[in-house]
Design a protein that fits this description.
Elements (H helix, E strand, L loop, with lengths): L1 H6 L15 H23 L4 E6 L3 E3 L27 E10 L4 E7 L5 H19 L5 E6 L10 H15 L2 E6 L9 H13 L8 H9 L8 E7 L11 H5 L3 E3 L7 E4 L18 E3 L14
Parallel strand pairs: 1-5, 4-7, 5-6
Antiparallel strand pairs: 1-3, 2-3, 3-4, 6-9, 7-10, 8-9
Helix pairs in contact: 3-4
């Protein structure tokens, strides 16, 4: 029967995702992709930073199976079930990928993936890397997914960027969100997260230090380098931003898909100050060296 099917042109195939839910969705998606492409080109031509941000899949800490294969003389023994109750903790990696510099920074959280956590990581990146790599630029483009802790409907994410980034550092921050179902085109997914997954495939993530080591040793032939830090802050879910607080933001929607594209400018209400939790916590890097509280501690 198998030979007959092959002679007739049949073969074993998997489902192929290519159908859009409607033609209007395809038009909206194409419009957003073209707009993001124009902004990326414009920001890069002016020497302004273009960063791609996202949260990687959460990982259980413990002697659990990790997908993939690795070279070894004998298989590594792991637990027969991946029970969350048996894990030593949960790692929440939040990544920032500098598109122009081909550099990645991953902040591994031990708490919930909240908008406050996302904005803390972005601000930490700018404080430790961005302001030194782009010392004379006062604009930034952030590429993010449409959902999650940095989604376009998330009010707390926008407020965090206003207070902790735009006001604190005098930056004009433009944010573009990819349409739903298009996160795989976000540069951080196929240029950073995929390479990290390849680097630790088949290796049990038995400690936070193991995760930091694998992330910080991730490289590619095209010159990718990654820095990893541990964020020991605890974040609480469910923070709500009122209409009045949103009205106080210096947020200007763009003419094209205004919900997914907007610019936040400094409004002077808290310029030069930051009340983000990373200023009070110790952040550790992959080489076990504690991060200093002042800017430039890694340089």
């Amino acid at each position: 029967m198998g030979r007959i099917l092959k002679d007739l042109g049949f073969s074993l195939r998997v489902n192929f995702k290519s159908l859009s839910s409607s033609s209007s969705c395809a038009e909206v998606r194409d419009e957003q992709f073209k707009y993001i492409g124009k902004l990326r080109q414009s920001f890069s031509a002016c020497g302004n930073p273009v960063i791609s941000v996202d949260t990687k899949k959460k990982e259980l800490i413990g002697q659990f199976k990790n997908q993939g294969r690795s070279w070894s003389k004998a298989p590594v023994t792991v637990a027969d079930h991946d029970f969350r109750s048996q894990a030593e903790g949960i790692a929440t990696p939040y990544g920032i990928y500098d598109v122009g510099a081909n550099r990645g920074s991953v902040y591994v959280g031990i708490s919930s993936d909240t908008p406050e956590f996302a904005t803390d990581c972005i601000c930490r990146w700018y404080k430790e890397e961005g302001c030194y790599r782009y010392p004379y630029q006062d604009e930034m483009l952030i590429l993010a997914d449409s959902g999650g802790s940095n989604g376009y409907r998330c009010r707390a994410f926008k407020q965090g960027l206003q207070i902790k980034l735009a006001n604190c550092y005098g930056l004009k921050v433009t944010v573009c969100h990819y349409p739903p179902g298009c996160s795989k085109w976000n540069p951080i997914d196929h240029r950073l997260f995929s390479e990290i997954s390849k680097n630790w495939q088949g290796r049990p993530l038995d400690s936070y230090q193991t995760i930091l080591n694998y992330i910080s040793t991730t490289t590619t032939a095209t010159g990718l380098k990654v820095r990893a830090c541990l964020n020991t802050s605890h974040y609480t879910k469910g923070k709500r931003i009122s209409d009045g607080e949103m009205a106080a933001l210096a947020l200007k929607p763009h003419n094209i898909q205004s919900e997914r594209n907007y610019t936040i400018t400094p409004n002077g209400s808290s310029f030069g100050t930051s009340n983000s939790s990373f200023d009070q916590e110790i952040w550790h890097t992959g080489d076990k060296q504690p991060a200093m509280a002042k800017s430039g501690s890694y340089f």
